[in-house]
């Protein structure tokens, strides 16, 4: 899995392990069962790319976690800056904080491939996936692992929480409106809101059960919205749960790919089309029709100035959606038009 981060001292730089006694202050799952033994190993996985300006803050937030038994796995996806060097220098005096540290570099393959690789390299049952420009609040890992233990839902695949937003300087960003949040606890039909509503899963708050993530095939390298696609596939097969606390900060800055609105809307159409093709009949036909018309309006708002000649096709698609249920290809067709417009 790629090139090591750099020269090692014994196993120091690439795979450092330690033993640490249990901390009885944390009522969390323990290795050995029935509360015996030390706390279970939990992984923090960071796919990193061109975030030299933010990686120290990201890693400092991991070091500050109140959950003691952590491993840190970071894979640099061929950054053109010195993200990996900064990460290595920062972690050198913090080796004893982690039971295991892995630092590696791979040739640039994109966020999906890097995320798949970093999760594959983890050893913990639960993996807290963290973007290299985002930060965790100190009790993020502890609170989510406590909730997992309290719910006692062995098939649970994904846990998420709430987040605030910061800018490139770490200053709070006040959002105009807050999106509705799902109810706390496990939900066996989270796919319904993920498809029909808005994506309510904020990425730096996510914890994944590694086995379930790998079982659904991980992130799709062919999709720009690899996260929403993966959350949909996981939620169609496993329960998803929310902890109703602000436990991470999402960093919004000019480098965020979501700012490319036309391309991201195209990715939404392709993601929805894929989900309908893979899960026929899961979404009720009336819901699919309403959903398609809702996104058709978004399609036209994005392209009406750039491609006014598309109006007849938009009107025809709207009419057809009232006569028959849109299919996966109807979503993909509009996605391809948006791809062309995005260039």
Q: Find the structural class using helix and strand composition.
A: alpha/beta
**Average pLDDT rating:** 89
**How many domains, in number, for the residues?**
2
| SSE ordering | EEEHEHEHEEHEEHEHHEHHHH
Which CATH class of the largest domain is shown? Alpha Beta
Uncertain runs: 1-26
Helices, by number, come to 11
Per the CATH scheme, the topology name of the largest domain is Spore Coat Polysaccharide Biosynthesis Protein SpsA, Chain A
Our measurement of the CA-to-CA distance between the termini, rounded to an integer number of angstroms, reads: 32 Å
Shape assignment: globular
Give the tally of β-strands.
11
Major sheet: size, sense and barrel closure? 11 strands, mixed
CATH architecture of the largest domain: Alpha-Beta Complex
User: Please, what is the oligomeric state?
Assistant: single chain
Spatial extent as radius of gyration: 21 Å
**CATH superfamily caption of the largest domain:** Spore Coat Polysaccharide Biosynthesis Protein SpsA, Chain A
Question: DSSP strand (E) fraction?
Answer: 15-25%
Helix content percent band: 25-40%
